[in-house]
Amino acid sequence: MIIPARLGSTRLPGKPLAEIGGVPMIVHVLRRAETAAIGPVVVACGEVAIAEAVQAAGGFAVLTDPALPSGSDRIFAALTAIDPEGRHDIVINLQGDLPWFDPATLGGLLGVLDDPWFDIATLVAPITSAAEATAESVVKVACGFDGEVAPALYFSRRCIPWGDGPLWHHVGVYAYRRAALARFVAAPPSPLELREKLEQLRALELGMRIGAARIALAPFGVDTPEDLERARKEFAQS
After folding, report:
1. What is the Cα–Cα distance from 111 to 25, expressed in whole angstroms?
2. Residues 228, 21 contacting (CB under 8 angstroms)
3. Please, what is the angle between helix 71-82 and helix 178-186, to 10°?
4. What's the predicted TM-score (pTM) here?
């Protein structure tokens, strides 16, 4: 499992090192990932300061080029550095801004790739309010479940699909087959990816198959100063 982290967030500069209860956010995520106990955990760092914080907490950090354009590029660079022989066929990309992420859900994520038809796995949670359905910050997924896993047919910041029925909130956690990740990062940004500002659309436009597993609740992500304040308050009350 690889957690990409960089300091250059536009909405919350220095986000990985922002402290929650006196502990850097990246360390909270690292601890959650370690609790899952499903394999080695690595933080792919864009800057030395993040690596130092991870190492001080006893974690394993790999420095990557800070100019890499996305978290997917960062995890591929880290994977290539730590496993050049290709011993690991599947890699999980866990976002570094999910300090309350439930590690138990990663089993369902990996279970998607038990089906060789899928190249990439991800998670979705039910949308529970009109505000969530219309918020552009919430990425929606068009998928129809007839079991525990469904093909993800499209992602959008708009409310999709039309009509009565459940709506799904995309949780930006992925499991990639190594070959799929290599193909993905080698391809240029795609037209729909640029239009929606959602890089997972590049995979769909390349013809890759993304499988979605359901979880009960979308985890709280820290993207803004307001989110950080909320996280600190919730931690203090826990």
Report:
1. 28
2. no
3. 130
4. 0.94
Which residues touch 160 (CB under 8 Å, ≥6 apart)?
Answer: 140, 141, 142, 154, 167
Cis peptide before 161 (omega within 30 of 0): yes
Per-residue pLDDT reduced to its tens digit, 99-139 = 999 999 999 999 999 999 999 999 999 999 999 999 998 99
| Count of positions (residues) in the chain | 238
Query: Using CA of residue 174, residue 132, residue 202, residue 118, what is the dihedral sign?
Result: positive
Boundary of a domain, candidates 37, 65, 98: 98
- H/E element, 93: strand 90-93
Could you say which residues of the chain have pLDDT below 50? none
Whether residue 112 sits in one domain with residue 195: yes
Domain assignment present for 193: yes
Give, as one character, the DSSP assignment of residue 38. S
H or E, element range at 174: strand 168-177
pLDDT at 8: 84
Q: Give which of 198, 211, 225 is closest to 70, Cα–Cα.
A: 198
Residue 233 in any domain: the answer is no
| Residue 74 to residue 5: CA distance in whole angstroms | 8
